[in-house]
Amino acid sequence: MFHIFQYQPLRLITQNSFSSMCLKQMLSRPVAFAQIWKSWFSSHSLLGKKNIILMGPPGAGKTTIGRIVGQKLDCPVIDIDDDVLETTWNMSVSEKLQDVSYEEFLEEEGKALLKFSASGSVISLSGSNPMHAAGMQHIKKNGIVVYLDVPTRVIMSRLKAKEMDRIVGLSPGISLKDVLQFRKQFYKRWFDVRVLCGGDVEAEVVAEKVLDGVKRYQDSELETFISTRSSRSGRSTEENSHKLFFSDVVTQGLALDGGLFVPERGLPKFTAEEWQGLIEVTYIERAQVILEKCIHPADIPASKLAEIIETAYGENFSCSKVAPVRHLAGNQFLLELFHGPTASFKDFALQLVPHLFAYCIPRSCNYLILVATSGDTGSAVLDGFSRLHDTDKQRIALVNFFPEDGVSPIQKSQMIGCQKENAWSVGVKSDFDFCQTAIKKIFTNSDFTGFLTVEYGTALAAANSINWARLLPQIVYHASAYLDLVHQGIISFGSPVDICIPTGNFGNMLAAFYAKMMGIPIRKCICASNENNILTDFIKTGVYDLRGRKLISSFSPAVDILKSSNLERYLHLIANEDGQLVTQLFNQLENQGHFQLQKDLLGKLQQDLVAGWCSDEDCLAAIHSVYSTTGYILDTHTAVAKVVADRLQDRTCPIIISSTAHYSKFAPAILRALRIAEINQNPLSQLHLLSSYSALPPIHWGLLETLKKTGNGDHQVCAADMSVLMSHIETLIQNHFM
């Protein structure tokens, strides 16, 4: 990251910038002096000797916006086309295009850029400058590159209105749209700051967004994180001085006080125009734009982030749309989140997070990732971390704890089969809540974590949904689902939708709520539980009560959860970031097994959330009914959401049901729902039987391959005892890192 604030003392300014006569005049006219000082200070503190470099396709408005930005900063403005190329060539750019070939033009343009230098200026590039690597490397050395990202359809409309037919690369057989799409790869390679520019946004507004983007790029101090259990008013001077950034919370996972990390200033908001600019782009492009706003470039530069996102979603998902939206019936739509390598929504985060983690951690330390899973997280996190580069695998290992008897046979086979040289699964003779609570206690056990660091040079980190980075990719697919409905013509932008999600740990639901906060018009978030319906009771009454409750094993094991970790983040938000209240509530839950919300907080919660629950019998009946009428097979978790959606929706707007896993993972329950009398206990045989139905969607490719290759394999099993778990962790560290 460039650190380009350059504050100069006033005595230097008076000596070097103004004559003594001007200074006397200004001091005698304090208002005029203040205005001149403000103008000088704004441009010099923002730019220093650096340039603001505007980049984008032809028709993006670079020249106009550059002039406005230059006026606001009172600094030189340089247009590469007019002030450099045409001066160098003694002819217009259009004439040059007629005079030489496409390749020759790019080379001549690049040579001119290599000879150009400036400082403290606003520079508007030509649309084709970014296609010459050496030229861009030269100019980028002394500047912040701002990408004016204008939707392709808007650019095409503008160029048509201007009757511009001389575009570099445009030729018979190659359309303007093809040229613009081809160039995007070059723009994405070079930019530091992206500015979203809708079709009807005035140049003055875009110029302000450019300045805001540059300021954000320069100052990562604004994007810090706090614990849900820390209060701004109650924080000490030491706590305030120790700021935490995205890279810190990715590696640390859980706050030292037991709370969860949240951005201190909240999430970024998109305007309606910015969202609409994402309607026609791919899922990967949507992810890049949204995550760039949530992750400061000082933590992960935009170009690196784009590379990570492309790696995560480019080839690892079986559907080109990554997270397609499918019409089910009536006003119900399915958001299919099971096209990743391990067949559940967890793949969206866990194909991405390992690469974020590997980039953010210091090279001087080894890391062991601790994970607790109720089913789907296990195979997803094992698969994700196993795809790291070999050098990263040597310093990053992972252990996955799961309830030995609390997951489906196929889920267990997956977790065992996904073990690699740096990733292992350990079955625990207890339930998910024990596994999750044990990991939290291990993280807050400073004696144990300190011992691991000193003795083995190894730090612990978390990859569960308690890790902030796990939530961000989930925001993307909720936003993308809404944009897809707009793109399909189901709704117009601004029309509301409801969202129904099978919910256990509350992370997926929280991500939908975050998408709503960022500007997606979600009306109601509907929380769907199975018979472990503690969240349903809580949302209806405001009482979170674990007393007397025992976890019930169900056909939807991923939501067999009684302690919903991410609920803490949501309560911190609606409580106006009152960390003391959150601490009080969750200490009471830990010590007494219950807490109750104040009436005003319950009112806020019920404005956002509604809830219902579904029995196993109703779940199986829904699977049978949907298959009978549509030929589509729901998994058991999606069926829970379908039942609750049927009961709670008012049918005044579309409802998006999150289909969080592929039915292949729960074959015995699905076969029972389809009323198959005799069910073979072999998971592979069960999948072959399901495939004979030729249903939609087809059997999951990745799951089938995993079971074919690995069979049952071996894994460790341990007792539900903290000391036993810690002993396992120490042994794994010794075996892998020492």
From TrEMBL:
InterPro entries (UniProt xref): P-loop_NTPase, Ser/Thr_deHydtase_PyrdxlP-BS, Shikimate/glucono_kinase, Shikimate_kinase/TSH1, Thr_synth_N, Thr_synth_N_sf, Thr_synthase-like, TrpB-like_PALP_sf
Gene responsible for this protein: Thnsl1
Single Gene Ontology BP annotation: amino acid biosynthetic process
Organism per entry: Helopsaltes ochotensis (Middendorff's grasshopper-warbler)
Name of the molecule in the record: THNS1 protein
Cellular component annotations (GO), alphabetically ordered: cytoplasm
Record-annotated Threonine synthase N-terminal domain positions: 235-313
Pathway: Amino-acid biosynthesis
GO molecular function, one term: pyridoxal phosphate binding
Origin: domain of life: Eukaryota
PTM sites of type N6-(pyridoxal phosphate)lysine: K346
Any one Pfam family match given in the protein's UniProt record, by short name: Thr_synth_N
PROSITE patterns listed in its UniProt record: DEHYDRATASE_SER_THR
Family label: Belongs to the threonine synthase family.
Keywords: Amino-acid biosynthesis, Pyridoxal phosphate
Cofactor: pyridoxal 5'-phosphate
